[in-house]
TrEMBL record:
Keywords: Membrane, Transmembrane, Transmembrane helix. The keyword Transmembrane applies. The chain crosses the membrane at residues 94-114. It comes from the Bacteria. It comes from Mycolicibacterium arenosum. This is DUF4267 domain-containing protein. The lineage of its organism: Bacteria, Bacillati, Actinomycetota, Actinomycetes, Mycobacteriales.
């Protein structure tokens, strides 16, 4: 079950990351943000490619390497949640909820899967 959780989280990471890279305007709207300018599109794509790479590293590896990739993803999710917390006053409440809630859910689920021995 834990292994399936790690792989599922990685697959979601790949999907969201690919969408952020390919369609930053759509991704911004899904997170409750206004239409991004060129700088924001660039930032969405940076986030997107990072998530695709971490997700692919996770799903294409096995055993301890998969756990290492999952731990990297967990660290990214913690950092994303911290960034959301720091920036929450600068955005609409719905966006702040997404900026904090999405990574918090990923941290909770990822930590659960890693502590249950997902490989």
């Amino acid at each position: 079950m834990a292994t399936a959780g790690i792989v599922s989280l990685a697959a979601m990471r790949i999907g969201i990351g690919a969408m952020a890279w390919a369609k930053p305007d759509l991704t911004a709207r899904l997170f409750g943000f206004s239409e991004p300018d060129g700088q924001a599109r660039y930032a969405w794509r940076l986030f997107g490619v990072r998530d695709v790479v971490v997700g692919l590293g996770t799903v294409t590896s096995r055993g301890d390497r998969r756990r290492s990739w999952a731990a990297v993803g967990l660290a990214c999710d913690v950092a994303d949640g911290a960034a959301g917390t720091l920036g929450r006053a600068d955005v609409k409440p719905i966006s702040a909820a997404a900026m904090i809630g999405v990574p918090a859910a990923a941290v909770g689920f990822g930590a659960w899967a890693l502590t249950r021995g997902g490989r």
